[in-house]
Amino acid sequence: MKIGIIGSGNIGGNLGKHFAKAGHEVFFSSRNPEKLSGLVNEIGQRAHRGTVEEAATFGEVILLATPYGMLPEIHERIGNLEGTILIDTTNFYVQRDGAEIKKQMNAQNYRESEWVAHYFKGAAVSKAFNTIPAAQLRDKAFKKEDAQEIVPFGASNRQAKEITLQLISDIGFKPAFIGDLSKTQVMEPDQELYMGFPAEEEVNAYTI
Ligand SMILES: NC(=O)c1ccc[n+]([C@@H]2O[C@H](COP(=O)([O-])OP(=O)(O)OC[C@H]3O[C@@H](n4cnc5c(N)ncnc54)[C@H](OP(=O)(O)O)[C@@H]3O)[C@@H](O)[C@H]2O)c1
């Protein structure tokens, strides 16, 4: 798959490396793309770098891995992402992202991932990887099947579900589908499935 990465830091950088290792083509982006040359050179020919707009055009799949509060600005730059799959890895923190965006999503009774889908109306959105600390995502991928860590995810439709499940599997984790985006509250900060790989029995209570 061709994967455009928006936010190439702890989460986007490490997941992008994994996706390239699994055989996918990745396009890392930054507001200063020149600073990504080390990352891209380390990965080799399956990695590219450029602007946020270029990553959005490149990707059949877009991985969103920026601070949550940057949503309006990013949407302004790349539009609705028509026809793509958008994997949302973000979390909302009021100290970092500001109260206003939370106020807006609460007013419509949206989950954080639904608010992302509200911005990127043309995309089929999934929420994945946001529950796991970046260092664990970096270090625990590509395990053999019987030792794989569980990654919970939600998705807005069948295509987003299938592609996200495939990508989680491709990098050696075990996907656990918890339902559509309205069910993803349990993946939000300080909720039941937040911060670390869940045990099978923990995630079973939420999978469908
Ligand atoms: N770190 C974790 O353990 C962890 C775990 C799970 C989920 N998350 C969530 O994942 C997201 C990313 O976290 P992270 O730790 O990877 O952050 P990070 O290392 O700070 O990387 C975020 C990236 O976002 C880019 N960015 C910031 N503002 C932007 C804008 N307006 N337009 C385009 N790009 C912008 C920055 O790139 P440039 O400055 O180069 O443009 C930066 O490299 C956050 O929502 C976080 O809450 C983090």
Note down, in words, how this protein is organized.
This protein is α/β, with parallel strands linked by helices and 208 residues long. It has one domain: 3-Layer(aba) Sandwich (Rossmann fold). It contains 10 helices and 8 strands. The chain has helices at 10-21, 37-43, 52-58, 71-78, 94-97, 99-107, 112-119, 134-139, 158-170, 200-204, and strands at residues 2-6, 25-29, 47-50, 61-64, 85-88, 124-128, 150-155, 174-177. The chain has an 8-stranded mixed beta sheet, with helices on both faces. β7, α9 and β8 (174-177) form a beta-alpha-beta unit. The longest helix has 13 residues, at 158-170. The mean pLDDT is 97. Bound molecules: NADP nicotinamide-adenine-dinucleotide phosphate. NADP nicotinamide-adenine-dinucleotide phosphate binds at residues 7-12, 30-32, 52, 65-68, 70, 73-74, 89-91, 130, 133-134. It comes from Aquimarina celericrescens. Residues 2-91 form the Pyrroline-5-carboxylate reductase catalytic N-terminal domain.
Q: Can you tell me the CATH class? A: Alpha Beta
Summarize the main sheet.
Answer: 8 strands, mixed
Using DSSP, what is the number of strands? 8
Mean pLDDT: 97
Count of DSSP helices?
10
What is the fold named in CATH at topology level?
Rossmann fold
In what order do the strands lie side by side in the largest sheet? 3-2-1-4-5-6-7-8
Q: Provide the domain count.
A: 1
CATH homology group: NAD(P)-binding Rossmann-like Domain
Q: What ligands can be seen in this structure?
A: NADP nicotinamide-adenine-dinucleotide phosphate
**SS-based structural class?**
alpha/beta
Low-confidence stretches: none
Pfam family, one: F420_oxidored
Protein name: NADPH-dependent F420 reductase
Domain Pyrroline-5-carboxylate reductase catalytic N-terminal: 2-91
Keywords: Oxidoreductase
